[in-house]
Specification:
The protein is α+β, with helices and mostly antiparallel strands. It has 2 helices and 4 strands. Strand 2 and strand 3 form a beta hairpin. The longest helix has 5 residues.
Length: 71
């Protein structure tokens, strides 16, 4: 189920996580076609994919939305 990317944040281990419009978060380093993509390394690169879609496995599993990212 493709969902638009609305933003990004760093998880507790310093890895980029995509925030999706459905309320789920996904680690970009594990999710094809995003694996090993350099765009996560710069703010411009991350901004360039806002609005693109990413397949949300959590939606397929019927999971509730994730908690908001820590500030």
């Amino acid at each position: 189920m493709d969902k638009p990317i609305t933003g990004f944040h760093l998880d507790d281990q310093g890895h980029w996580v995509a925030e999706l419009a459905c309320g789920h978060n996904q680690h970009t380093r594990h999710d094809p076609p995003w694996q090993n993509r350099p765009w996560t390394q710069t703010a411009q690169g991350r901004a360039g994919v806002i609005g693109r879609t990413l397949d949300c496995r959590k939606c397929e599993q019927g999971a509730p939305p994730d908690r908001p990212a820590p500030v």
